[in-house]
Amino acid sequence: MKVDLNLKDHIKGQAVQLLGNGRLVEAKSLFKQLCELDAADAEAWHTLGVISGQLGHIDEAEAACRRAIAINPAFAQAHCDLGNALFYQGRLDDAMSCYREALRLQPDNAVALNNLGNVLSELRRLDEAAAIYEEALRLRPSAMTYYNYGNVLLRRQRLDEAAAKFQEALRLQPDFAEAYNNLGIAYRHMAYHDKAASSFKRAVDIRQDYADPYANLGTVLMELGRLDEALDCYRRALSIDPGNVKAAVGEARIYAAQGDFDRAYSRLKPLLEADKETSVVALAFAALCRRIGRCDDAVAMMERLLERTAPSPDVYERISLHFELGRVLDASAEYDRAFAHYRKGNELKAHPFDPEQYARYIDGIISTYNAEFMARAPRAANASQRPVFIVGVPRSGTSLVEQILASHPQVYGAGELEEITRIDASLMARFGTDAPSPQYETVLTQETCDALSLRYLDRLAEISHDAPRVTDKMPANYLHLGLINLLFPKARVIHCVRDPLDTCLSCYFQQFSASNFYAYDLRHLGAYYRQYQRLMRHWEGVLDIAVMKVGYEELVADLEGVSRAMLEFCGLAWDDRCLHFYDTKRVVATASQDQVRQPLYRQSVGRWKNYESYLGPLKEALAGR
Fold it and tell me: Are residues 332 and 218 in the same domain?
């Protein structure tokens, strides 16, 4: 059959123009005419396949691309776009074959490489996917490839690198809302809450109909204890996408954090009855299960999710499921099963902690804040007694101590503030060191101490305008007691201590965010704890600031006696409300949220004995072996 070339050119010109103007339905109709007019036109069939794919007509896209390939088997881009149609149908192995054929025909096809990386990522072959994205970026940097590469790094828990890739994507495409959203996710996993919130806000500024960043912002705000704002975000996400599970679960978690467990379960119940098991629903169910008597059901749901192969939970979900299973099983006295899950959860985490490097870091603190320096170093002129620093290893009772103090009407519990860490980091940055340096002596002048002290006090003023005492419960401030001594000579420090085995085991059982890397391994925990003890012995010999040691076991055994002593130490009169700390209505955004809302209980004392058969490596490390 002879083709009317003039008619063909006319139709093609119109079709291309419509395609360029985004009028896909009309363009598709004309390309179908072209294919009917000239059934041997491989390019027309290919373009018809691409348009069909863009319109979501995946079966038609596949058929058109296959026709193009049948006409011209060496048509590399047609192989690539056939792969796309198969990918969207979930036929991953077939899609991978198409991309590999496209690359055999055209080795420098960066799009085919990117898409091959996507298939490998879906198949959880993450190392191979990363290598493919590297090659695609070498050939042609693109925002989408940087974004996809960032997602793979996110799943591999290489968070700094993931954030860098999302930033590169945004450099090339500043209005890339999905890249801002996933950059926020990376920041959240690194516990950079301010940066995470800023990224999520940028995502919704770009796309106000984008539900996920609203839900993610809600989660960050909830973790910061800003529950009303978090609830607003979740509701905004649900107004955009009523089926957004993350937002619905977020609502339930907020009600639970406020102590309204019935309302929390009512919000969660429809998701459980929908018979669509997801990790986010299972984890929220597990957090509530003891309140509603359904822990066996929660355990079974989480175990099913861990056993599921497709779609299987991602690494962060798997970690959370193992830790939550450990928590629920521990509460049920199923200690062997609980420990197995805790161990698996920790094994899935990255382990960048180096005990020897950390020991050198402690060496730097001790050599900087030595007895001679502390004797002659200037102190800030202020005599503020507002700050009360509550320090110690995490899980040593710091949250309980703060809750007791914050139940006093003259105390504001500020939670874990990062300001002291930031001040110390700014000093290290001046000298390009990764640990405190003896060079500090050259900059810690009277004027500098006054300025840094005022910076911190201004932060307290933002948090509470009138409370005579404000607690800062950042446990790791024990690292900065030398600096605190110089900036706040009249402040008070409460040092929380607890049985080392109980403390370390509780850390091992806690799903920390991206910090506390030492906690993922029992030997690392023991090594870290020894360095903490070494530094606290040093502080005992060089500090002149008021420090009170509070033992967790003594506090549990004599709540009133120890609480009275703490209030006296803080210069405050006794108040009976401190004995009823569990009734105090304040947001607790740390891992001890549940404990501080209950009357004092003694089950945590000697808890390590339930797991003694597993603690050999920890005991050896604590003994320095």
Answer: no
Q: Give the count of beta carbons closer than 10 Å to the beta carbon of residue 273.
A: 8
Q: pLDDT of 48-77, one tens digit each?
A: 999 999 999 999 999 999 999 999 999 999
Total number of domains constituting the chain? 3
Answer yes or no: are the C-beta atoms of 358 and 527 closer than 8 Å. Answer: yes
Instruction: Copy the structure tokens of residue 10.
Output: 């006319």
The enclosing domain of 213 has a CATH number of: 1.25.40.10
Res. 8 pLDDT band, cuts 50 70 90: confident
Residue 288 to residue 327: CA distance in whole angstroms: 12
Strand partners, 68: none
CA distance 301 to 297: 6
219 shares its domain with 360 = no
The predicted-structure confidence for 472-492, as pLDDT tens digits, reads as follows: 999 999 999 999 999 999 999
| CB neighbours of residue 359 within 10 Å | 14
Residues 214 and 340 in one domain: no
100-106: which pairs have CB atoms within 8 A and are 24 or more residues apart?
Answer: 101/76, 102/76, 102/77, 103/76, 105/74, 105/75, 105/76, 105/79, 106/76, 106/77
Mean predicted confidence (pLDDT) in 102-131: 95
Same-domain status, 435 and 498: yes
Domain hosting 342: range is 293-350
3-state secondary structure of 539: helix
Q: With a threshold of 0.85, does the pTM exceed it?
A: no
Establish if 59 belongs to a structural domain.
no
Neighbours of 87 (CB within 10 A): 21
Q: How far apart are CA 578 and CA 564, in angstroms?
A: 9
Whether 553 and 524 share a structural domain = yes
Q: How confident is the model at residue 168 (pLDDT cuts 50, 70, 90)?
A: very high
DSSP 557: H
- Spatial distance between the Cα atoms of 559 and 556, rounded to a whole number of angstroms: 6
Other Cβ atoms closer than 10 A to 571 = 14
Reported as a single tens digit per residue, the pLDDT across 601-613 is 677 889 999 999 9
